[in-house]
């Protein structure tokens, strides 16, 4: 008989430590930054540019208004000075038209004096009859109509 070897067979089962299997941390992925569309970039730039243009127009308009106001003020001062000068000239003209003032200027400034009796001469003028006949002749020519002139040219 044969004797069989006894083999111990046992399964070794190592107690497995139950490890908590921590699921790997799921980190939220950083969202990939999407590049803004060109139209979304241009819109704010255009709005800022339009804002600057409007501000520039408002400021330039106020500058033009201020400049025109300065011109008006300067012209009003010139007008006022001209009116004052005009009044002074009117007063001088009124003074110069006065006969006594003219006689005084002639005596004092020009050295003139009234003529003596020896310097006065009298001249006789021809009668007015000759002048009257010439005037009536001229008046007759002016009173003729166009038809009379044409008839006189034909004759």
What would you say this structure looks like, in words?
- With 155 residues, this protein is an all-alpha fold.
- Helix content is 61%, strand content 0%.
- The chain contains four helices and no strands.
- The longest helix has 60 residues.
- It is rod-shaped and about 205 Å long.
Brief rundown of the structure:
The chain has four helices and no strands. The chain has 155 residues and is mostly helical.
What is this structure's SSE topology?
Blueprint: H1 38-97, H2 99-108, H3 129-143, H4 146-154
Overall mean pLDDT stands at 80
Report helical residue fraction.
55-70%
Strand content: under 5%
Report the end-to-end length measured between terminal Cα atoms: 195 Å
Give the number of helices: 4
Using the CA coordinates, give the radius of gyration: 62 Å
| Class computed from helices, strands and strand pairing | mainly alpha
Main beta sheet: none
Number of strands: 0
Order of helices and strands: HHHH
Low-confidence stretches: none
Shape: rod-shaped
Key phrases:
single chain, 155 residues, mainly alpha, 0% strand
């Amino acid at each position: 008989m044969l004797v069989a070897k006894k083999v111990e067979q046992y399964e070794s089962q190592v107690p497995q430590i139950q490890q908590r299997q921590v699921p790997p941390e799921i980190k939220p992925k950083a969202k990939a930054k999407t590049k803004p569309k060109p139209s979304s970039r241009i819109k704010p730039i255009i709005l800022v540019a339009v804002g600057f243009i409007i501000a520039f127009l408002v400021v330039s308009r106020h500058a033009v208004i201020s400049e025109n106001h300065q011109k008006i003020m300067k012209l009003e001062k010139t007008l006022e000075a001209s009116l004052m000068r005009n009044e002074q000239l009117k007063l001088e003209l009124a003074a110069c038209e006065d006969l006594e003032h003219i006689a005084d200027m002639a005596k004092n400034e020009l050295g003139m004096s009234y003529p003596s009796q020896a310097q006065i001469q009298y001249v006789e003028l021809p009668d007015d009859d000759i002048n009257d006949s010439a005037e009536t002749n001229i008046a007759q020519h002016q009173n003729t109509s166009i038809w009379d002139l044409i008839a006189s040219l034909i004759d």
